[in-house]
Amino acid sequence: MSFTVAVSPTGLRGLLLRTMSPVAVIAIAQLFGTSLWFSANGAAESLMTAWQATATDIGWLTNAVQLGFIIGTLSLSLSGAADRFRASTLFVFSAIAGALFNLCFAWLADGLLTGAALRFCVGVTLAGIYPMGMKLIVGWAPERTGLALAQLVAMLTLGTALPHALRLIGADWPWQAIITASSLLALVGAVLIGLLGEGPHARSGASATTPSVKGAGAILSAFRISRFRAATLGYFGHMWELYAFWTLVPLIVSRTPLAQTYPGPGVAGLSFCVMALGSLGSLLGGLLSQRLGSAPVALGALSLSGLSGLAFVLFAPQLPAWGLLGLLGVWGASVVADSPQFSALAAQACPRETVGSALAIQNSIGFAITVVSIAATTWLFQHIGIDALWLLVPGPVLGLLGFTLACRGADTSA
Fold first, then answer.
1. Which burial class, exposed, middle or buried, applies to 348 when counting CB atoms under 10 A from its CB (0-12, 13-18, 19+)?
2. Which end of the chain, N or C, is less surrounded by CB atoms within 10 Å?
3. Neighbouring C-alpha atoms within 13 Å toward the C-beta of 202
C-alpha cells in the first residue's frame, strides 16, 4: 500500500507538482533527509568540549552512522524489501524514524556510548532515504538517470554539509539545537515524498515479487553483469576517499592556516563551502553526462579527485592560504561528482525489477569501505596531521583500475 496523500490534482499534490518537477521534489527531500547524516559533525567542536572527546571519537560517531547504514542497506537488499515495498513508503517512514533517533541523540545522549548507539540507529534509517531516493529517481526519470541522479547527489552533498551551515548560522545556539534543526528538516522531507508518491515508471509493490528478487543469490548475481561490476568497482574506490574526506574537512581547516586567515566564516563556514562545492561538481557532471555519457564523466571526476588529494598532501606546506583553499575547493567539487554517474551506470546495467536491491547492496559494500577509511584516517590524522591524507590517494587509483579491468574483461568475453 503506497504511503501517498490521496488528493485531487488541484490539491496539495497537484500544487507541489505545479511548483516543482518530481526530480526537484525528490532532490529537496533528499537534501533535508540526509542532513541527519553529519548532524553530529556539525556540532563536533561542542561535543569534543562537552564529552571530552577526541578527533578519533568524532570519527567513531561518524562510523556508527556508516555501520547502521550498512546494516540497513544489507537488510533492504538481501531481503528484497527494497523492491517489494514502494520506495516512497520506505523513504517516508525512514525519514520520520531518523528524525526521532536524531532528536534522542541531541537530548538524551550523555556520552560516546549512548551517542554512538543512537547514531547507529540514525544510520539504519538513512538506508531507507538515500538508496530509495535513487530508486524514486529511476521511477520518475529513467530516460535521464545520469542527470537526475546528479541532482539527487548534489542535494545529498548539500545535506551532508548543511549541519556546518546551521552551526555557522546558529553560532550561539547550544549544539542540541543544531541537531534538532536537522530532525525538523528530515520531517519536511518525509512530507514532500509522502505527497509525491511513486513515479509512472516504478514497479508496484505487488509486482516486485518475480523470481529475480527472491533470495540473496539473485541479488548478488548482479555482480556477474560486467557493466554493473565495472561501475561498482569504480564506486568502491570513490567511497574509500569520499566520506573520510568529508569527515576530515573541519580538521583540515583547523590544522592549516585557513581558519586564522579567514576568521569570518571560520571552521564551520569554510567546511560548509568546501563540502557544498561537491553539489556544483555533481550538477556539472550531470550536465556533461548528457553530452559525453556517464562513464567518461565518472572516470574524469575520479581522476581529478585523486590528483587533487595527491597535490594537497605534496604541496600543502608550501602553499599560501588562498592556494590551500582553492585546491581544497577543487577536491571538494570533484570528490563526489563521480558518485551519481557510477550509480547511473549500475542502475542501467541491472534488470529494472532488481534495481532497488542492486543499488542497496552497492551502497552497503561501499559504506563498509568507508568505515575502514574513516577509522584509519581520523586515527592517523590525530597522530601525524595532514600527512594522514596520503591514505585517501589509493581509493581513486584502485577505482580507476577496477573499472578499467572489468570493462576490459567484458570486451574480451564479448
1. middle
2. C
3. 26
